Amino acid sequence: MSVHVRVITPIISTGLVQASDFEGILDPDDTLDFTELDEGPASVESGYDAALAVPDTIAKIRAAEAEGVDAVVIDCMGDPGLVPGRECVKIPVLGPCQMAMSIASTLGHRYSVLSISRATHASFLRRAREYGVADKYASTRSIDIRVANLRAQSDLRRERLLVAAKAAIEEDGADTLIIGCTQMFGAARQLEQDLAAEGLDIPVIDPVPLTVKLAKTFVEIGLSHSKYAFATPARLRAEERPAPPLTAVGSNG
Amino acid sequence: MSVHVRVITPIISTGLVQASDFEGILDPDDTLDFTELDEGPASVESGYDAALAVPDTIAKIRAAEAEGVDAVVIDCMGDPGLVPGRECVKIPVLGPCQMAMSIASTLGHRYSVLSISRATHASFLRRAREYGVADKYASTRSIDIRVANLRAQSDLRRERLLVAAKAAIEEDGADTLIIGCTQMFGAARQLEQDLAAEGLDIPVIDPVPLTVKLAKTFVEIGLSHSKYAFATPARLRAEERPAPPLTAVGSNG
Amino acid sequence: MSVHVRVITPIISTGLVQASDFEGILDPDDTLDFTELDEGPASVESGYDAALAVPDTIAKIRAAEAEGVDAVVIDCMGDPGLVPGRECVKIPVLGPCQMAMSIASTLGHRYSVLSISRATHASFLRRAREYGVADKYASTRSIDIRVANLRAQSDLRRERLLVAAKAAIEEDGADTLIIGCTQMFGAARQLEQDLAAEGLDIPVIDPVPLTVKLAKTFVEIGLSHSKYAFATPARLRAEERPAPPLTAVGSNG
Amino acid sequence: MSVHVRVITPIISTGLVQASDFEGILDPDDTLDFTELDEGPASVESGYDAALAVPDTIAKIRAAEAEGVDAVVIDCMGDPGLVPGRECVKIPVLGPCQMAMSIASTLGHRYSVLSISRATHASFLRRAREYGVADKYASTRSIDIRVANLRAQSDLRRERLLVAAKAAIEEDGADTLIIGCTQMFGAARQLEQDLAAEGLDIPVIDPVPLTVKLAKTFVEIGLSHSKYAFATPARLRAEERPAPPLTAVGSNG
Amino acid sequence: MSVHVRVITPIISTGLVQASDFEGILDPDDTLDFTELDEGPASVESGYDAALAVPDTIAKIRAAEAEGVDAVVIDCMGDPGLVPGRECVKIPVLGPCQMAMSIASTLGHRYSVLSISRATHASFLRRAREYGVADKYASTRSIDIRVANLRAQSDLRRERLLVAAKAAIEEDGADTLIIGCTQMFGAARQLEQDLAAEGLDIPVIDPVPLTVKLAKTFVEIGLSHSKYAFATPARLRAEERPAPPLTAVGSNG
Amino acid sequence: MSVHVRVITPIISTGLVQASDFEGILDPDDTLDFTELDEGPASVESGYDAALAVPDTIAKIRAAEAEGVDAVVIDCMGDPGLVPGRECVKIPVLGPCQMAMSIASTLGHRYSVLSISRATHASFLRRAREYGVADKYASTRSIDIRVANLRAQSDLRRERLLVAAKAAIEEDGADTLIIGCTQMFGAARQLEQDLAAEGLDIPVIDPVPLTVKLAKTFVEIGLSHSKYAFATPARLRAEERPAPPLTAVGSNG
Predict the structure, then answer these.
(1) Residue ranges per structural domain of chain F
(2) Whose C-alpha in A30, B211, E34, E149 is 20 to 30 A from the C-alpha of B169?
(3) Which fold is adopted by the domain D97-207?
(4) CB-based contact (8 Å) between D213 and chain B?
(5) What is the pLDDT of residue F103?
């Protein structure tokens, strides 16, 4: 069974994200394409950025379903558009923050998120609560590097991730880690190795590849979000259905 | 001290909401004005609707601060734009769902929300968790009437609110109730009386008047949300500040 | 609408609390008076002190309702008499600890209490649980100054509050603070400024002025605690009602 | 090792409680005496009643320690005076509600309380939260009989306890039950048998005998409440210690 | 990348489980084999059964790793041996109950388990707490059919699953369902259809196929449980390592 | 009433545990005997060890009931066999970890466990959650000494326990402590004294003597675990009952 998953990167095109970033995650006979936004922010580093990304993210999710795409992954740890996007479609819509936190909860007893800036700490705690996986949430630690600099400052990034990881493990009790930004390509494996070199055998989740894989799994197995929980908005249901006959007007239902 | 509070109704103008709806909530020497959106949905009955309302709601919140308004109330139980709006400004931004749930938690031991449709149940539970007041959340019960019909079907609304209220009290253990839609004007007092007539002495919160009053209180007392928790987005901070001198370029901080 | 709020300071008169302490909280045409106890402790610094304060506090709450006062505020962070007082009357009875914790929960993601002594730490945690707002409770930190010395040692108080506040923020993750004793007049604004001087933009709640304001708001809006949750004690109900006719004697119900 | 436990029944003498009620709980060479209050309510059926009982209950607890009694049990499901009483003494002070809920948590997965009136429901939930054992709390169900009538109406009591118990089991998921009033002598064993007759193998806790036994156990094993958690009130510590020498006056510590 | 996953069915061979039950879950070039126990129970319908299954399940997990198998799935909703098994090996060991609950938490807001007997209810609640996903746990409902009869009584099973599912949805608030026994082959899809026929659009998780897929995903992506959380037992570490040189004897480490 | 309690030490005999270790816990006319396993590990220092101990522990529990023993205590902080053991018998089966955590919850506001190795930390948190007493769980701290060395290295043990205890109190907020291994005889009293010498008035629970005492109390008072919660396994019920008459075969129930 070949599957078509679409990654929606909820920013306007900046050249930062490339199709090649996602190569090799799925099998050769699967289709994994990605799209960016026509309207939205240049990066998502705050709730404000995320909010501006949502309307066009929803549009891209609806378009994906209309085009026959099998599942959608939102390429941002803020999971922007996850709830409204799910309301609008029946195909699986997955957010990397939710999936990473849920899988982290199965791998150990306490997980921490390693994020780009202190400004995001509160939002990760908020999300853990919203997703019902706060029991195993230990902390968020951050490295204080802007998204735009993550690739250029890769040595600094590596160094600070190790410091943040060790603080999370030693001071906050974490035994499992999540990379808290989808733009830190390759950081998870590197950090696992750096920790192992210090005798710390800790899994580090790279959220997007994991979430893309899970999206494929959901499709293969026939699972999607509960439409009973994420009901189709009334105004979209109206569009789907033919208008009621005139004689029905006036009745109350 | 006279205070200027602005109610932002996060829908495009439909004639449904009138300035007169808010008359008399504040004192004569206060200013209470309201605005609707230029772009957004015609009503908020889903997460999808709420998401479409957010960008212009944020713009209206920023405009309010720029105009010297003292505090803003978002006139919708979905609290659309609450988090990103708070990031963008320093003046208090209040959501009626958060304030109603928090005040309900102080009035009794378990509160229920009386909502318009089953589709909203999940979102109220999600919000109670996000706001940290889930310990006293009992349930959401709904009356299954579309927003557009709430005024026309006021008898049906009254009848169904009573049924829903009694179910919340008797089956879910609620002792305090919240009207779960900001468009049910007058419903709270009516329901309190209908319950009292059956011997049930239960406070019913009408969220918007309460929240407007609390906004004024916050202003008078000098309180606002924590900017440490809702940090100003980096891209807005950049706008605020003059560019750094050239000599600083290249340093990493 | 002019409102009559009474502050009940649950200690015997020591000269420490003055009517002038509450000046200016409400509007000129409102009435804000205060009373102390005839019987009780000289200060409330333990659960023992609080317990001794409760009986006369309840009496003062009942007297207030009988005199036509609109709402009562208990002037102590132990909220002594809150539950039994609410059972005895229908007018709003507010405790500054409950209201401060509930409002703090709306302003940020984690709040800490700054208290006078380590002996009170456990009681703040216990209260946060009881009030259903423990999800956002970060910690209590204390300054180790006896109540009787708070005014005389105001420089020490200021210095230690800043140290405690920074520990709460940096080590416990607080983004919102509550002054944990009602006798630290003026401390909240001072601490906010001292924190701002270090770049920490953190709201600090002064519980009594906030609670007095909220009491007025409750009166104006017609809200009070749920009598269904805080039922009138059977022995007081009996007093309220005329004796049943003799023929009813012997029936069981 | 023979132990001296004192039961403090926090009501004035009404003839309702008899020394014989406690016969046979401890061993012949132990001492189990009981005392009622000189000042307080005639029964405890509300938070108001409980509050009025507290000051003399504390006095009786202090007197017990002064007399060399080994441990104290408060004979009321409201646990009145538990926290302040513990602050005042070092000998174990046990409340039957706390002990019954904690032991119930070890016997099954969800426990319910069977109480005298709906007015007490909220207080049991509040207490479960305060004691940190709310995870296994299922519900409170009540039988609507006044304390004064519990002995006279023993058939009605039995019948209604069975109805309440079955509702707790079948509707609320309880597998363990607690008798919610210390004045229902003999009810626990009777209810266990009545449930067994319907095929329901459910332990029913009679709180006072259990708590008296646990008090003895604490004494024998050398356990008491944490004085670090329940610190001796400053004004009582002052009494305990000789005044500091004059030369120390003026130093700040 | 071809992957070798082994399903360990923690019962002795009864002919009930067949290799063909797992056909088609993975790709043709993957290896999915299964093994039963040499010593253990004939079915797992209690904690007792599960306990007896654990020692040989651990042995089979260790053997799998020694043989070069890539990941192991325990084929039982009791997840017997999950914790000790993970301690013993580095390859992923997955339990269908944990994975189904964690994925269910991502698909909706409240999930229920549909189990074979009331005797299992408590253990599902216990497990949800242990796994940190109790926030979204709604209930367990059961169909009262013994494992040995599940295939023979497939019509009864279908009928009762529908009744249980509707009770979970309507009375317990579930929007997502989990089949609570790994021996109900085909039940999930059937139940989804039966619910859809009544207008209820609810995902139903069939735990084993999902868990097998996730095991493959973990292997492909290089994830396994945290060895820092599930540390290798000291007595196995000793086996792994050469004995320390004699000169080290006597030192204390 | 004389009581027969059996301690089951879930390891094979190593000479480490002696009958004399339990002398003096019960009264002279009570019977307190102990047994070790025929098959199992030599010590329990991991989940793996615990799992291997369970089958014979269950057998020993069943044998105890068959022999007329009144109650059983499992002598290991992992509580191995607690759940399946309870399923198999009606007499009380108590685990020292569960009882110590539950009693600790009644003595203070936050408790910590002092354990032998970091490898056990996760399991104590897991157990606190499972037992429903996680609200007051502060932390686990460990001393890094192997079980086999606990007696020989008693000075090191004492020293490290004090360090761990102070860290738990000062950094984790504990006010009550639990010795986290049943092989640290005498450590609790010693540590209480060492803490008292530093002015820290903290109860330290020695789990096994406490649990043995509680087992006796349960017997005297007629309490045991809920058989409704820990239902007898179907295969054991079948053994208890005579086979149904042949005519019943084929009917479905």
Answers:
(1) 4-95+208-225, 97-206
(2) B211
(3) Rossmann fold (3.40.50)
(4) no
(5) 98
- For β-strands D31-37 and D111-115, DSSP reports them as unpaired
Q: Does C81 touch chain D (CB under 8 A)?
A: yes
Instruction: From the options 1.10.645.10, 3.40.50.1980, 3.40.960.10, 3.40.50.12500, give the CATH code of C4-95+208-227.
Output: 3.40.50.12500
Residue D238 has pLDDT above 80, yes or no: no
Angle at B213 between CA B207 and CA B218, to 5 degrees: 115
Which one of C226, C232, C237, C240 makes the best mutation probe of the B interface by having the most chain B beta carbons within 10 Å? C226
What count of CB pairs under 8 Å joins E to F? 102
Question: Global pTM?
Answer: 0.92
C-alpha C27: how far from chain center: 21
Helical ranges in chain D per DSSP H: 47-67, 82-88, 96-107, 121-130, 154-172, 187-196, 207-221, 234-240
The answer to whether residue C252 neighbours chain D at the CB level (below 8 Å) is: yes
E58 Cβ under 8 Å from any chain A Cβ: no
Decide whether B4-95+208-246 matches B97-207 in CATH topology.
Answer: yes
List all residues 6 or more positions away from A121 whose beta carbon is below 8 Å from its beta carbon.
A115, A140, A142, C173
With CB atoms and an 8 Å threshold, state whether B125 touches E109.
Answer: yes
- Of the residues B109, B137, B201, the best mutation for testing chain D's interface (the one with the most D CB atoms within 10 Å of its CB) is B109
Q: Measuring CA to CA, how many Å separate D102 from each of B172, C49, D128, D183, F228?
A: 25, 27, 9, 20, 18
What share of chain F has pLDDT > 70, as a percent?
94
Q: What is the architecture of the domain spanning B4-95+208-246? A: 3-Layer(aba) Sandwich (3.40)
Query: Is the domain F4-95+208-225 a CATH 3.60.15.10 member?
Result: no
Domain E4-95+208-232 has CATH 3.40.50.12500: yes
Would the pLDDT of D251 be above 70?
Answer: no
> What is the sign, positive or negative, of the torsion defined by CA atoms of E20, E26, E30, E31?
negative
> Is chain C in touch with chain B: ≥3 Cβ pairs within 8 A?
yes
Subunits next to C (3 or more Cβ pairs <8 Å) are A, B, D, F
Instruction: Give the right CATH number for A4-95+208-226 from 3.40.190.10, 3.30.70.2190, 3.40.50.12500, 3.50.50.60.
Output: 3.40.50.12500
A223 touches chain E (CB under 8 A): yes
Distance CA C161, CA D43 (A): 45
A134: nearest CA partner in chain C: C135
Question: Tens digit of pLDDT for each residue in C60-112?
Answer: 999 999 999 999 999 999 999 999 999 999 999 999 999 999 999 999 999 99
